[in-house]
Fold this sequence. Notes:
By secondary structure, the protein is mostly helical. It is about 75% helix and about 0% strand. It has 6 helices and no strands. The protein is elongated and about 55 Å long.
Amino acid sequence: MARESAARSGAARETPSGVARAPSTAFGGGPPTPPRSGIASTRIAIVMLLGAETMFFTGLIGAYVVLRGASTVWPPLGLPRLPIAVTWANTLVLVTSCVTMAMSLAALKQKSPWRLERYLTLTTLLGMFFLAVQGSEWIRLVRHGLTVSTGVYGATFYTLIGVHGVHVLGAVIWLIWVQQRARRTRYSAANAGAIDMVSIYWFYVGGLWLILFPLVYLY
């Protein structure tokens, strides 16, 4: 009888349906997530999204290179030059935001909610600052005569850089949503997946800018 009671106490406790209960976890609460084989569906979704985005930007960049190569003078005479110095500094801002995003992922792995929230907030603010500086420079260029209707130079600039700006804006909005959701639910395992996806997209728009900046502003 003693051996039987010890064996019963060491075994997993069963519910009336015969399913064993699993112990709860400390980070996020609830039973532990069973290990899954293969690639998560969220990773597949973000890879498909980035694949479509890459093809889209490849087409835009290809069109820009062709139009640029067909022009004898670039930029055309009488049009303002692009703000190189300010855009260099703004590029550093976007690169720094990628660093803070990497720090937020490290804080997530270390299960440090306050560090995660701090670095996500810094990343969001840096992204907003990047957009604000870029928008102010566009306003200045428009006042000096560079608009979409001024020819191929203006049309290609605002199309290529503007589309990237829209993607950064979308990434900022996505990041704000993930941050607020994580704050309400105390950074559970589901939030880890959401933060992982938005970080991949953030690194993508940051890396894309490192291609667009020298191509449009420096070349």
